[in-house]
Design a protein that fits this description.
- The protein is an alpha+beta fold.
- It has two domains: 194 residues, no CATH class; 94 residues, no CATH class.
- The strands form two sheets. Strands 1, 2, 3, 4, 5, 6, 7, 8 and 13 form a nine-stranded antiparallel sheet that branches. The chain has a four-stranded antiparallel sheet with strand order 10-9-11-12, covered by helices on one side.
- It is globular.
- 33% of the residues are buried.
Length: 307
Amino acid sequence: MQRDTFNFFLYRLNKEYRYDLFSSCDAGKRTDDEWLAEYLATVCSREYDFKKETRRAVYTWSLRNYQNLENNFSSVILARSQLQKTSTIVTDDSLTIGASVSNPPPADTIVLLFYWKRHIVIVENRAGMTTGETWLRNFHAIIENAKSYTSIPVAPRLEPISVRGTILEHLRTLDKIFRFRVRLKLPNPELNRWSKRIYDEMIEQRLTEYLQEFISPTGIRVDESSKAYSSGALAELGYKEGGVQIEGQKNGESVLIDEGKTAVKGKIEQLRSLIRGIETNATSKQLKNALVRIESEVNRLFPPNEN
């Protein structure tokens, strides 16, 4: 019996403030969430599709069907269409290498659920689509390319939410840390008592990004009252860009760590078909209950922080 399991990853919805020539100067007239929602709805159009060529195939990556759901959720579909594939072709009396073209092209898709209350994105984990970071790079490529055509001043960016404790555990357990590097994003905010220190500093200095690199040949401070620890706490919540680099020493041996690129995983039984129905704008009375279950599981996997 098929269990109809909905598998997913958790990503943080970060805000990327634009200062380029194409962006609008009217950012203050609406909330950041309103701008983010408009950006996502706007890029769900053919003109923002991203074409990607590999050695053996040509793909188009697209965002489609942005819609607002109940329980403070929205959804969007990320699709990968295969326009052309170079492979072995069977002829009448032999085999040859050639390009096959499909019209209309077949597409693989994943559902992205935006949980606005906590600025968390539930990304469907689907074999062949979410293996590696290809889907994420192409999602961001669509967002980046749209900046030349739209004046919306706040753009979305997704970053994996790490398993809680992974980054800070490295800071606690290494004997010495000689280098700690992280690029932080301004939180929405969802903070704990350690990360609030850096958030307050970013607000005071009017920073939207904060590139930090701590270096000391004798070892930097990483106790709970240190700035490095506070930065690690903020990065662990997903308010960062890229990985967190740590160079240190343990048991007399050098250690090099690149942490924060693997997202929390989750699964819920008897839900996949219902969530997949969002792909074609098919909603039902059961969807509200499904979103309640998803919210509950997200809060269990990644509990809300104390403010």
